[in-house]
Design a protein that fits this description.
alpha/beta, 5 helices, 31% helix, 28% strand
Length: 159
């Protein structure tokens, strides 16, 4: 992978598993090089997987098996724009159903603690509606949701 800017995500020995899951779940995603440690290090031994290069939706990433010292949090998330309810449902179910966790307003975490926003275009369009009353109704509907329900957003938009 040759990229001037790469997202580095810290894992506790599971970077290869995470990269494989992302590659199987998201389009335009793949696992690239796997680099093994040339010597022992604080979180592992020589020969262990140290770094995994991968892409998620075309974004270059690196998984670093740095050990248990650093945890993911909501300050970083992947925001995935979906086209319809079927895509929203599929991605949400893949993340949450594979040991992940639901949150509010389209947010969820995968089993490694990485945060995801599964955000239908219908929601972002509604929130940006020039009629601020329409946007406020859509926002109110979203605030009651975990996974985004496009039909409910559209109903709120119509009033």
């Amino acid at each position: 992978m040759v990229s001037k800017n790469t997202i580095c995500l810290w894992y506790d020995g599971t970077a290869a598993d995470a990269a494989k899951f992302y590659a199987e779940t998201f389009p335009d995603s793949a696992v690239g090089a796997i680099v093994r440690a040339p010597g022992d290090y604080p979180a592992g031994k020589q020969g262990d997987v140290l770094v995994v290069e991968f892409t998620v939706l075309g974004i270059p990433c690196m998984g670093l098996n740095g050990g248990p010292g650093v945890k993911h949090n909501e300050a970083f998330s992947f925001q995935v724009a979906t086209d319809d309810q079927a895509e929203t449902d599929r991605l949400w179910s893949a993340i949450v159903g594979n040991g992940g966790q639901e949150s509010e307003c389209g947010w969820c975490k995968d089993k490694w603690g990485v945060s995801w926003q599964i955000t239908p275009h219908a929601l972002t369009d509604a929130l940006a509606d020039p009629d601020r009353a329409v946007a406020k109704r859509a926002f109110g509907a979203m605030m009651q949701m975990r996974k985004i329900d496009i039909a409910a957003i559209e109903a709120a938009r119509r009033g």
